[in-house]
UniProtKB/TrEMBL annotation:
InterPro entries: FAH, Fumarylacetoacetase-like_C, Fumarylacetoacetase_C_sf. It comes from the Bacteria. Pfam families: FAA_hydrolase. This is Fumarylacetoacetate hydrolase family protein. GO terms for molecular function: hydrolase activity. Residues 60-265 form the Fumarylacetoacetase-like C-terminal domain. PANTHER family: FUMARYLACETOACETATE HYDROLASE DOMAIN-CONTAINING PROTEIN 2A (PTHR42796:SF4), FUMARYLACETOACETATE HYDROLASE DOMAIN-CONTAINING PROTEIN 2A-RELATED (PTHR42796). The keyword Hydrolase applies. Keywords: Hydrolase, Metal-binding. SUPFAM superfamilies: FAH (SSF56529). It comes from Pseudonocardia nematodicida. Belongs to the FAH family.
Amino acid sequence: MRIARAVVAGRPATVVDDGEGWRISDVPIAELIAGTAAVPTGDPLRLDPAGFLLPYRPSTIIGVGLNFADTVADMGWATPTAPYLFPKLSSSVIGPSDPVVVDLSVTTRADWEAELGVVIGRRTRSVTADEALEHVFGYVAANDVSARDLQAQDGQWLRGKGLDTFCPLGPWVASRDEIADESDVAIRTWYDGRLVQDGSTASMIFGVAELVSYCSTWFTLEPGDLILTGTPAGCGDFRTPREALVPGGTVEIEVAGLGRQRNPVHAPA
């Protein structure tokens, strides 16, 4: 099943595809994620790919840093022995075609990070890795846009990860059965039409089940909570010469089975 928000007949609507085409749902996405609402019936819709909106706004976002072996090698850092967690603010979330706003007076090192996002489906606390996937509703494509200069200034990553518009999500959330193997999902990024990231979750140091179990050891996860699992090699800040998102550019990401985002980069209004 895939669930999304999209423009239908000029108005935003919740839509669901259970394999038979997109249909309008009368219930909120939160209830669909929690498994408390029936899949809608009716005639399938023809949706414009550009008409997909932010699928939902998670109240809690947990980022996982340094989780791809190839990215850690790019950075020249030591491989972590436990997941490195940081908060990503709900206010940073935007839709799959909304502008990423980069204020060059705030950051000159805004970077792309295409990621597999894990959407929790049920209350989760102290589960083992063997139990963890049963608590996952599904997955969503995410771009964990990061201000590298702010990260370096602060030492911790709240400012660098939490700026407004720095977390595009979508275009849809797919239930867990839509992804055949979460340990080998292709992830790609294009900047101004040039492929800059071309990797897979096969390079993850800690897999999805390990991450859900680890997070649940320390705090309760609720339905709709989102875990961002890290990004493959190819980030702009670790290139020579260094590259960054600047107004006038366009960043696109694609996670296999989860659709493609296309976000223009704007200066502040």
